[in-house]
Amino acid sequence: MNPLGLGCALGLASLPLSLDAASRVTVEPDPQGGWQLLRNGEPYVIRGAGGYRNLEILRAAGGNTLRTWGAEQLGPDASGEPLLDRAAKLGLNVLVGIWINHPRHGHDYGDEAMLTAQRERVRAMVRRYKDHPAVLMWGLGNEMEEDGSDPRIWQELEVLARIVKEEDPDHPVCTVLAGTYNDKLRAMQEHYSSLDLLGINIYGGAETVDDALAAQGWDKPYLITEFGPQGHWEIASTDWEAPIEPSPAEKAATYRGSHEAVMQASRKLCLGTFCFLWGHKQETTATWFSMFLPSGERTPSVDAMIEAWTGSPPPHPAPVIHDLSADFREKRVAVGGEHEVTAQVTYAGEDELSFEWQIVAETKDRKFGGDPEKAPPAIADSVISSDGTRALLRLPSEPGAYRVFLTVRDPHGGGSTHNFPFYVE
């Protein structure tokens, strides 16, 4: 199956992994400088995505690795097939996430009973999955360090890494941190010597990560384990604190630019990247980090990664929304008025596009660190008329914060979505 029609013309072999033989993966110095990842003795550069859906598209797009965060994501899909088996059949490898509990979720790193239970859970998970051929490495924790000031967390990661290595000496251990701020790597290195690869989740400023790591004395291999558009916590907001989401065109440029910048860093320590999110989720909006629409279409961000991984665009690039214009964009406006909105959209094909305009309430369930959020409702009867890139909208009669959304779809599985906030008073 090749859902993008890329095929062998781009040199993308999709040979399945043998389901009978576990792999052996090592991290070793590269004779030409820096470090390299070897899978069964062969160099392996990660072209990865964070997520566990749309795997056929990932493989067709030139990706070779996916990343998970916890054991629950390895279970069977609707067909009953476990994730690792699905990945192996497509020739994909997995950075298998082992969830390590966060203090902000109530985990006490001074509580011996909690620590013992977590150690037993980690050991059991490694024993269960270590011999599966799709396992590439272990992702021991994700952003559990918070500000990095509690040495007990680093000390416990050292204990857990030794457990993983005791159970499985054939796959490296990677621990994922939230950025490089607070000089946290210096504290980590003091207490956590068994780490094989560092994982960094970074959004704005991904191109500077190598310099930031060097400044804290990190000269070992690392991965960019999440990257994408600027986060809602690091971008301009309205006066009512609604973050202003980048356009699909801006997001696509950031995905490709960030990947290329870190892979070309002069120290040659980055062994691969994972774009985020190879799927969709509600986080501030339903679209901020979603590389796919909720209805399944791939966005220009996916197309950007196809070009980064293969050197060529897909046969049918998705439509791209560059901008939305309205006299009430990012402003306060009276209830119930009628206003026109226009969009700037480009599309390389000649097919007819579909346009969907909506007004959606601003979320009232904002969370921290990617924790699950409830999606806010769309406002009924808000579209008076629409003609492709132009719509006449009726603003809500209830005061509050809202967003205008436009979603554009093509007939080849591509789509694009953009929004802007406004406030009714």
List the helices and strands and how they pair.
Blueprint: E1 25-29, E2 35-39, E3 42-43, E4 46-50, H1 55-60, E5 65-67, H2 83-89, E6 93-98, H3 112-129, E7 135-142, H4 151-167, E8 173-178, H5 184-191, E9 197-201, H6 209-215, E10 222-227, H7 248-263, E11 270-276, H8 300-310, E12 320-325, E13 332-333, E14 338-346, E15 354-361, E16 383-387, E17 390-394, E18 400-409, E19 415-424
Parallel strand pairs: 4-5, 4-11, 5-6, 6-7, 7-8, 8-9, 9-10, 10-11, 13-19
Antiparallel strand pairs: 1-2, 2-3, 12-14, 14-17, 15-18, 16-17, 18-19
Keywords: Hydrolase
GO molecular function, one term: hydrolase activity
Pfam family, one: Glyco_hydro_2_C
Structure explained in plain terms:
The protein is of the alpha/beta class. The protein has two domains: about 5-310, TIM Barrel (Alpha-Beta Barrel); about 320-425, Sandwich (Immunoglobulin-like), CATH 2.60.40.10. The protein contains eight helices and 19 strands. Helix 3 runs parallel beside helix 4 (about 150-165) and helix 7 runs parallel beside helix 8. The chain is globular, with a radius of gyration of 22 Å. The termini are far apart. About 45% of the residues are buried. Residues about 5-15 have low confidence and may be disordered. This is Glycoside hydrolase family 2 TIM barrel-domain containing protein. Keywords: Hydrolase. One of its GO terms (molecular function) is hydrolase activity.
